[in-house]
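Retro notes - structure team

What went well: the batch runner handled both jobs without manual restarts.
What didn't: labels got mixed up in the shared folder, which is why I'm recording both outputs here explicitly, each with its sequence directly above its tokens.

Job 1
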Amino acid sequence: MRKTAILGIGQTKVDEHWDKSLREIGGEAAFLAMQDAGVDRVDALYVGNMLSSMVSGQNQLGAFFSDWIGLWQRESVKIEAACGSGAAAFRSALMAVAAGDVESALAVGAEKMTDKAGRDVTAALATAADADYEVEQGVSFVGINALVMRRYMHEFGWKHEDFAPFSINAHANAMHNPFARLHEKVSAEKFEKSSMIATPINLMDASPVGDGAAAVVIVPAEKVLRQPKVVVAASAAATDTIAVHSRKNPLFLNAAYLSSKRAYTMAGVTPDDLDVFELHDAFSIMAALSLEATGFAERGGGVRLGLENQIGVRGKIPICTRGGLKARGHPVGATGVYQIVEVVQQLRGECGATQVEGASVGMAQNIGGSGATVLTHILRRE
């Protein structure tokens, strides 16, 4: 397998883009990535998306986007893995390049979520859960996470206000990211007084939906002359049961543990070697569980890292340095590619006020469903 590197990145602002179609926001990110890479063509296109058939009424996104951006006659396919679709598309693109099948590949994560009523989007998001044993019983996706959070609080003795640092950190970092949806600071008081969605999850525990797209161009590492060079040190994926109640331990993200363990081995690193971690904070409980599954905290101890100020850009393990899902926004099928773009920005030293000093190794972890599909990537600056 050939060593691969990221030559170019591009992204659009996460927002309610009433004036832009799915093809326009996805095309914008793709063109920006190719412009950053200094190329006008690639050999293959992989599109990460979850909701296009249900929200936009459009499938066949490979041909849809390749036609729009002028990549006719190239391999172009849509990759779907629920909220993990973006990272799955990125993994498909880098595997094609690493295997020598193509010399360049474009991974685009694109999602349009605001063209339907909220109830319709909620129903579409629920397709990431078990249709027979979760959704059929009337449990929404946020409801599933609320049940997990309530059990976590009961098992480990945490209070709801103990989760506030995750939201506070994400919003503070998003203030410096022009592509983030939410540019407003959050205080502990605002966190606690926020409207309840599904007890104990309130508005400040949950990431906002939105329209957005991000893209990266991947090539063999030896073809990258720009400095610093950002190489893909590891790519790993794992799955768990789709239904939370079927897991041996519903409070442990086993797929996150397995994929990160494989990634660490592949990259030859440990959690202590990571300078930045873009985790999947769709809900604050997922931030805590992710930190535990990836080896930064003991089980039940992920919350403590926030309370001890260890998750900021000057902390032990900086997370969500550009706002994370919580404040950058969570256009589900695009999120995994946004995470990759943000790690690349850190390794290039392009993050301004939220730059992690000396960042040379970064990890992005994208989760599909409530932990059913997890993809972990480690990038290194060379």
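Job 2
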Amino acid sequence: MGKPVLRIIIPCYNEEEVLPITAPMFLEKLTALMEAGKISRRSKILFIDDGSRDKTWEIIQALARQDSHFMGIKQSRNRGHQNAVLAGLMESKDHCDITISIDCDGQDDINAMDEMVDAYLDGCEIVYGVRSKRDTDTFFKRFTAQSFYKVLRSMGVDSVYNHADYRLVSSRVLQEFANFKEVNLFLRGMFPLVGFKSTSVYYERHERIAGESHYPLRKMLALAFDGITSLSVKPLHLITTLGGIIAAFSFIGVIWTLIVALCGNTVPGWASMTCIICFIGGVQLICLGVIGAYVGKIFLEVKQRPRYIISDRTEDRL
């Protein structure tokens, strides 16, 4: 068995400030892995420009001209982080033995790649990069992130706690993963569904080196909701249960109303009736919203539109 060919998959969106800083760091790590004899010298770094509006693509092109270990692809428009990672994985699955996906901002510890490759050489097909602690996060971010993973688990989504999208995946897994055709992507919940032998590598996450985060609270909440509704039908079961509970209480209320009316103790008033109507109406709208989210996902899935479109590529010189 020869040395595995590695591709480091790096999604980029408006990263002109941080990319010139982190690109040499990724190249240094790739070189160190090659010199240590862990990976093939045909290994590469693949940048995926997710429809950036700044000079990110120009920087990627310049990097590819400077060093043949750099290469890049450009999406025709912004499709989101998950689609960008998927594009890199699918474009690489037939040209390498292993991939490691990592964000461009330098927050994930690139030295964890050594342990990832070692775990692969020991027989693991998927290696998850997991944050060992969240000391650098604010209390609000730490609380929301931990709640995010707990909610996913409670909803039946099989995800790795404190794992984002820093992971090693073998080409064998990617060949099977290519059979997952859904348009609504939540990669950190989809890879555990593939199976195969897996393990986790723990690391400390750093502050962003430069630029601003492209994942504010709004996008994090949207990702969480997508993850739940894409991989679990438990919310539908929950609203069915909620409907049954409310129906039971309503039935009890009807009996109580009849008893009071027969006893002649009724008191006219609109406040209680208005509260009940508003409560029932609110619950119904929430339930319709959840059902509507699932119907919307079905609408998107049946169209079978492409999940990514590559509009440009750098020249492969290796």
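One thing worth noting from job 2: The first strand starts at residue 6 and ends at 12.
We'll revisit the folder naming next retro.
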